[in-house]
């Protein structure tokens, strides 16, 4: 598993503290969505399908930090929309680092090179740039519905690594993905020098506009088994081997929605990041 | 299949609570008709039918809000705004891409010799 020791230690100490205080349900990763706006319109994305007045809005820096403090999770993931379009992204990340939160900034990387050149983000052991990459050039550009995005993302990854950033990738596998091509993609990403790769199946969820290409359970296990069996030694994943076994259908886990609370313009999403059954005013709800 | 343009008829076969659930799932603006006949256009982002006084929450068409409206004050919800999820499927993108490829090839063939 490819997560720095200091991060593992912080998370382990946090979990231990929760256990000692007999708290059974606690958040591990806060999903903080400062805006829904994005500079891409991927067909599989359920996050950007809002009317214009909603897409124009974003959380204030104060709202973001209040949510982080209220939640208390040691890890904060900033997905979107595209977080690099958030006007105060630099200040937000700085404030999280000051609070010693481990931050995963999930970006499609279209604006990354420009932001790095402007000095908006600073390298830190607390900050990982998590680049959305859904496969090799052909598959990625198809998944994000625009040609040329893969090449720009690769260029930005190289630039970020050159500047000393922690860089990971996050990949969603949709129905029809080729295990062989995915394996070639893992080689390609590791060749670039990323710290680790994160995988998830394109879960079917009711708000996504494209239902057909999401994976059902059986297909998920089959696809991940073919993709991950005899994993090459140099592949590093930012997920525990147990989770990868779960994806391959070799292990079962109970759903723990409280582990991944989500905060956005609408409040605290119930019950978690993937399911959108409503919103609450306090994270405990 | 989109609900865009639909004006529900609430009655024996369709309850207000069901229409509110559909409005909550709808990815576009709707027009909430209040019991007093006034209307507010906006995006219904939340509803809680289990609350002691069930309510919806809405950002209006100018982005102001959130505003809370109790179920008891709602007469109907009309699906007046554009469905932002309609026509955005992956299939639609693949078809568009294929069409573009064919058009590009055709342009190439009929181009100057
Ligand atoms: S880059 Fe991410 S947020 Fe933007 S449209 Fe694609 S999946 Fe959605």
CATH class of chain A: Alpha Beta
The arrangement of helices and strands of chain B along the chain is HEEEEEH
- N-to-C terminal Cα separation of chain A, in Å? 33 Å
Q: What average pLDDT do the residues of chain A reach?
A: 88
**Tally of individual domains of chain A:** 1
Q: Which stretches of chain A are low in confidence, meaning pLDDT under 50 for 5 or more residues running?
A: none
Structural class assignment of chain A? alpha/beta
Rounded to an integer, what's the Rg of chain B over CA atoms?
A: 20 Å
What's the name of the CATH homologous superfamily of chain A? Aldolase class I
**Strand order of the main beta sheet of chain B, please?**
4-3-2-1-5
Descriptive labels:
heterodimer, A: 285 residues, TIM Barrel, 10 helices, B: 113 residues, alpha+beta, SH3 type barrels, 5-stranded antiparallel β-sheet, 27% strand, binds iron/sulfur cluster
């Amino acid at each position: 598993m490819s997560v720095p020791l200091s991060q593992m230690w912080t998370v382990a100490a946090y979990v231990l503290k929760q256990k000692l205080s007999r708290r059974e349900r606690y958040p591990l990763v806060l999903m903080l969505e400062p805006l829904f706006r994005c500079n891409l319109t991927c067909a599989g994305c359920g996050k950007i399908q809002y009317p214009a007045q909603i897409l124009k809005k974003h959380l204030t820096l104060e709202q973001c930090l209040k949510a982080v403090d209220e939640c208390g999770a040691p890890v904060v993931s900033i997905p979107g929309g595209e977080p690099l379009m958030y006007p105060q992204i630099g200040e937000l990340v700085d404030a999280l680092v000051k609070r010693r939160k481990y931050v995963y900034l999930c970006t499609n990387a279209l604006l990354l090179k420009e932001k790095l050149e402007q000095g908006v983000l600073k390298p830190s052991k607390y900050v990982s740039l998590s680049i959305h990459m859904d496969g090799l050039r052909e598959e990625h550009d198809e998944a994000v519905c625009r040609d040329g995005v893969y090449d720009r993302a690769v260029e930005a990854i190289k630039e970020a690594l050159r500047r000393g950033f922690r860089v990971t990738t996050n990949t969603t596998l949709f129905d029809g993905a080729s295990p062989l091509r995915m394996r070639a993609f893992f080689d390609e990403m590791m060749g670039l020098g990323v710290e680790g790769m994160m995988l998830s199946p394109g879960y079917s969820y009711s708000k996504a506009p494209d239902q057909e290409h999401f994976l059902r359970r059986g297909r998920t296990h089959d696809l991940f088994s073919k993709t991950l069996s005899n994993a090459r030694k140099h592949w590093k994943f930012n997920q525990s081997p147990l989770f990868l076994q779960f994806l391959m259908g070799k292990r079962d886990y109970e759903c723990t929605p409280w582990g991944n609370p989500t905060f956005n313009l609408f409040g605290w999403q119930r019950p978690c990041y993937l399911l959108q059954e409503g919103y609450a005013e306090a994270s405990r709800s | 299949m989109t609900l865009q343009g639909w004006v529900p008829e609430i009655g024996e076969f369709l309850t207000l609570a069901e229409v509110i659930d559909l409005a909550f799932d709808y990815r576009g603006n709707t027009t909430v008709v209040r019991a007093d006949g006034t209307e507010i256009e906006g995006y219904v982002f939340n509803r809680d039918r289990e609350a002691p006084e069930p309510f919806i929450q809405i950002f209006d068409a100018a982005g102001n809000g959130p505003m809370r409206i109790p179920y008891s004050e709602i007469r109907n919800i009309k699906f007046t705004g554009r469905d932002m999820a309609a026509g955005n499927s992956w299939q639609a993108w693949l078809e568009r891409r294929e069409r573009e490829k064919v058009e590009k090839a055709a342009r190439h063939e009929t181009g100057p010799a």
